[in-house]
Design goal:
heterodimer; A: mainly alpha; MetI-like fold; two-stranded antiparallel sheet; 16 helices; globular; B: alpha+beta; D-Maltodextrin-Binding Protein, domain 2; 3-stranded antiparallel β-sheet; 17 helices
Chain lengths: ~300, ~375
C-alpha cells in the first residue's frame, strides 16, 4: 500500500484530521494542567525544586486570598446580573423592526469586543483619571458635581468601574448569542399568540424567554468562566500596580502576584488549582440545577 | 548601552559584541525574563532587573553569573552599597545604573513668592514650618505625598537608618521609627500643607500635569527623577533647585540611595566572559558612567567621575535646573547616602505598601499608621 492510500483510508483519515487538535490539547492544555497540579505541592525556585506537601495550600489561608475570592465572586454575580438581561432585551429589540438600522446598531454594539482589553482599560483609566481635567471629572464639574478620585475611591466605586468596562465590552458578544437563539424560535408561535391577542410583554415572558433557555444557560456558563478568570481589566485599570486596598484584586490577580511578582510559582499553581475546582463545581452545579444534562439525555 | 556597544566594537576588532537590545514595559520585561530563567533555556545574555524584583532572581539556585572578577579591579571606585543591593553571599550579580541619592526638588517660583529660603530648611521640623508658611502665603501645597507607592516614605525612613527589612531579611516594617515617620507624613497632609499626589504616585500622568502647572512647591525623590522633570514638566525649566533632603536630627543623614535597576548576565549567555567584559565596559567603566549622566541624567555609581569636568558641561539637565554644580552637592553628601536592604521578602512588602499601607494610613485614614504598618508587616512575615 502506498503512503497516499494509508492516509486516505477511512480508518486513518479522521485521526489525521483531528491530530492538530489532539496535539495542541495535549501539549498546551493537558500537560500544563498536570504539571500545575504537581507544582502545587512544590516550592519552585530557579534551578531548585522541592516537594513541600500541602504547605502551599495551607498558606492560602490569608486575608488577601479571601479578598480576592470575595472580589471575584462579587464580580461574577454582578456581571451575570447585568450581562444576561440587558443583552437579552437589546437583542429582542434588534430582532424586530427595521433590519438595516438594526444591522448598524448590532455592529456598533459589537465593535467594543474587538478592542483589546489593554486599550480599553487604558482609555478607561484616562477617562476616569483623578485630575480635574479628566473627561469624566470635567463632565462632573459641568453638571455641578464634585470631581472625584475615581480609581482611588474604595471598593464600590472600583466595582462600578469594572462593571462599566465589562458591560461596554461584552454586551455586543452576548447580543450575538441571543440573536442566534431568537432566530431559532419559529415565527408561527408569535403569529399564534397574536391571534390569541397576547400583549408584547406576554409574548416576551411566555414565548421568548422560555425558548431562549438553552442560550441563557450557555451565556451564564461562559460568564461564570469569564467572571472568575477576570484579571486584565483590573490590572490595566490600575496601571499594573496593586489596586488601592486590593479593591480590584481577583483570584487570577492574586495568582499573578504570587507567581510573577513574588516569584512563588508553587503557590501560584496551588491558587490555579483552587480556581479550577471553584469554577468546575459552580458550573456543574449550575448546569445540574437547570436540568441541562437531562435535556441532553432526552435528545 | 547602544553607544557603548559602538565604542566597544570600534576599539576591539577581535572581540566584537553584537548588541541587540529589546525594550519592554516594566512588568512585561520581568515576566519575560523570569520564565526562561526558571526554565533554564531561552534567556537573553544580558538582563535589566529592577530592584524590587531582584530578590526573586536571587532565590534558589541562582541563574545569574557572579561579576566579582570583573568588578574587583575598580571596586573601590564604586559606591559599594549600590553593588551590595544586587548581591548574595558576597557575590555581586548586577551592575547598578545609579546611586539614586534622594534629594529634594524645590520650585523656587513658589518659594520666592512665599518668602521661604530653602537653604534655611535644615530639618524636617523646619520643613513642616516652611510648608505652613507656603500654604498660607500662596495657597499652594508645599508638597505632594504618594498614596499608592512608597517613594515618599522609603527615603525618609532610610535616612534614619531604618528600612522595611533588616540586614538579615527580617521584616521590620512596623518598627517605631517607621510608625513615627508615617505619622509625620499624615500630619503634613492633615495640616493642609501637603496634598495626596494627584493620580496617587509621582509617575502618574495626573501628577506631571499638576506639578507642571506649578501645583506644589517641592517634591523629594531620588536623583533619577531629574529626567522626569525635563521630559514631562517642561514649563518648570529654570525654576527648580535641587538640594539635599532635610535631616531628622541635627547630625542625621541628608540622603538615602533609592531604587535602581541592576544589569546582570544570565548563565545562559553564549559567551560568558565576553558578555561580562562588555557589561563592565558599558556600565562599569569611567566612560560608561559619564554616559549614564550625559544621556540618562542619573547619578553614576562610580564616584570617581563625579568631579570630572564632563559632569559639569552644559546639557539639558544643567540647563533645566538652577543648580550651578549638581555633583558638587552630591560629593558633599557622598557619605550620607544611607543604603537599604534588598532581601527575599522585599517584593511582598512593597506590594503591601502600594496596595494597603499608604492608602489606609494617609488617604482614607481609616487605620492609624501603626495599625496599617503592623498589619502589612504581619502579612509579609
Amino acid at each position: 500500500m502506498t503512503k497516499k492510500q494509508t492516509l486516505g483510508s477511512a480508518k486513518v483519515a479522521p485521526y489525521v484530521f483531528i491530530l492538530p487538535f489532539i496535539a495542541s490539547f495535549l501539549i498546551f492544555y493537558l500537560y500544563p494542567i498536570i504539571s500545575t497540579f504537581i507544582m502545587g505541592f512544590q516550592q519552585v525556585y530557579p534551578g531548585q525544586v522541592e516537594f513541600i506537601g500541602l504547605e502551599n495550600y495551607r498558606k492560602l489561608d490569608n486575608p488577601e486570598f479571601k479578598v480576592a475570592l470575595k472580589n471575584s465572586f462579587r464580580y461574577t454575580v454582578y456581571t451575570i446580573a447585568l450581562l444576561i438581561p440587558i443583552p437579552l432585551l437589546l437583542s429582542v429589540w434588534l430582532n424586530s423592526g427595521n433590519r438595516t438600522i438594526n444591522t448598524v446598531y448590532r455592529s456598533v454594539l459589537y465593535i467594543p469586543s474587538l478592542v483589546s482589553i489593554v486599550v480599553a482599560g487604558t482609555i478607561m483609566r484616562l477617562l476616569f483619571a483623578s485630575s480635574d481635567k479628566s473627561l469624566v471629572n470635567t463632565l462632573a464639574i459641568a453638571v455641578g458635581a464634585e470631581p472625584r478620585q475615581w480609581l482611588l475611591g474604595g471598593p464600590h466605586q472600583a466595582m462600578i468601574l469594572l462593571l462599566i468596562l465589562a458591560l461596554w465590552r461584552w454586551v455586543g458578544v452576548n447580543i450575538i448569542y441571543f440573536l442566534s437563539g431568537l432566530q431559532a424560535i419559529p415565527d408561527e408561535l408569535y403569529e399564534a399568540a397574536d391571534i390569541d391577542g397576547a400583549s408584547q410583554s406576554q409574548k416576551l415572558w411566555r414565548i421568548t424567554i422560555p425558548l431562549l433557555k438553552s442560550t441563557t444557560i450557555f451565556v451564564t456558563t461562559i460568564s461564570i468562566f469569564g467572571g472568575f478568570a477576570m484579571f486584565e481589566e483590573s490590572f490595566i485599570l490600575w496601571a499594573g500596580k496593586p489596586s488601592p486596598n486590593n479593591v480590584g484584586l481577583t483570584i487570577v490577580g492574586h495568582l499573578y502576584n504570587k507567581g510573577f511578582q513574588e516569584g512563588e510559582m508553587g503557590m501560584a499553581s496551588a491558587i490555579g488549582i483552587v480556581l479550577l475546582i471553584i469554577v468546575f463545581t459552580l458550573s456543574i452545579s449550575f448546569l445540574k440545577l437547570f436540568g441541562f444534562f437531562e435535556a441532553e439525555g432526552r435528545r | 548601552m547602544r553607544k557603548m556597544a559602538k565604542l566597544w566594537n570600534e576599539e576591539r576588532a577581535d572581540r566584537r559584541y553584537l548588541f541587540k537590545p529589546e525594550v519592554f514595559p516594566f512588568e512585561d520585561m520581568h515576566t519575560k525574563c523570569w520564565f526562561p530563567v526558571q526554565a533554564g533555556t531561552g534567556a537573553p545574555d544580558l538582563v535589566d532587573i529592577e530592584i524590587a524584583k531582584y530578590p526573586n532572581f536571587l532565590k534558589g539556585n541562582i541563574q545569574l553569573a557572579p561579576l566579582n572578577d570583573v568588578i574587583d579591579p575598580v571596586r573601590d571606585k564604586f559606591v559599594t552599597a549600590r553593588l551590595d543591593i544586587y548581591s548574595k553571599d558576597g557575590r555581586n550579580y548586577g551592575l547598578p545604573f545609579h546611586v539614586g541619592a534622594s534629594v529634594i526638588y524645590y520650585n523656587m517660583e513658589i518659594l520666592n513668592a512665599a518668602g521661604v529660603d530653602p537653604y534655611a530648611i535644615k530639618t524636617w521640623d523646619d520643613y513642616m514650618k516652611a510648608a505652613k508658611v507656603v500654604k498660607q502665603k500662596t495657597g499652594k501645597p508645599m508638597t505632594t505625598i504618594e498614596v499608592t507607592e512608597h517613594w515618599s516614605f522609603w527615603p525618609l525612613i532610610a535616612q534614619q537608618g531604618s528600612d522595611f527589612l533588616d540586614a538579615d531579611g527580617n521584616v521590620i516594617l512596623d518598627n517605631a521609627t517607621n510608625v513615627k515617620t508615617l505619622q509625620y507624613l499624615k500630619d503634613l497632609l492633615n495640616s493642609g500643607a501637603a496634598v495626596a499626589t494627584p493620580g496617587g504616585f509621582h509617575h502618574a500622568e495626573e501628577y506631571y500635569g499638576f506639578m507642571n502647572d506649578g501645583g506644589a512647591a517641592s517634591i523629594w525623590m531620588p536623583m533619577w527623577y531629574m529626567n522626569r522633570f525635563t521630559d514631562y514638566m517642561p514649563d518648570l525649566a529654570g525654576k527648580i533647585l535641587i538640594l539635599p533632603m532635610p535631616r531628622w536630627t541635627a547630625d542625621g543623614m541628608r540622603s538615602a540611595g533609592m531604587g535602581g535597576t541592576g544589569t546582570s548576565v544570565t548563565n545562559q549567555a553564549r559567551d560568558l566572559e565576553l558578555t561580562k567584559d562588555f557589561l563592565m565596559f558599558a556600565k562599569g567603566s569611567e566612560e560608561g558612567n559619564l554616559k549614564i549622566w550625559e544621556d540618562l541624567g542619573f547619578d553614576p555609581p562610580r564616584w570617581d567621575v563625579w568631579d570630572n569636568p564632563r559632569m559639569n558641561a552644559a546639557n539639558k539637565f544643567t540647563e533645566y535646573y538652577q543648580n550651578d554644580d549638581i555633583f558638587g552637592m552630591l560629593l558633599d553628601i557622598k557619605d550620607e547616602i544611607n543604603s537599604v536592604n534588598i532581601k527575599e521578602k522585599l517584593p511582598a512588602v512593597i506590594d503591601r505598601l502600594k496596595s494597603s499601607v499608604m492608602i489606609q494610613a494617609l488617604q482614607q485614614q481609616n487605620k492609624s499608621p501603626a495599625e496599617a504598618l503592623k498589619e502589612a508587616a504581619d502579612l509579609a512575615r
